[in-house]
Amino acid sequence: MTDRDGRWLAATMHTAFFLLLVASIVRFLDHHHGEPAAPWVIALTGCLAAVYAVGLVLRVTGPEQVTVPYLAWLTVVTVLWVVLVLLAPSFAWCAVPLFVTGLRTLPTRPALVLVTLVTALVVISQNRLSTGFDPNLTIVPVAVAAVTAAVITYLRRQAVRLRETERRAGMLDERQRLSREIHDALAQGLSSQAMLLQAADRAWDNPDLAREHLHAAQQIGTRNLAEARGLVQDLAPADLDGHSVEEALRNVAEREPQPVRVQVDGPARPLPSRVQSTLVRIAQGALANAREHADASGVALTLTYLDDEVVLDITDDGRGFDPAAPSTDGRGHGLPAMRARATQLGGRLTVESAPGQGTAISVAIPLGQPRV
Question: pTM value?
Answer without folding.
Answer: 0.47
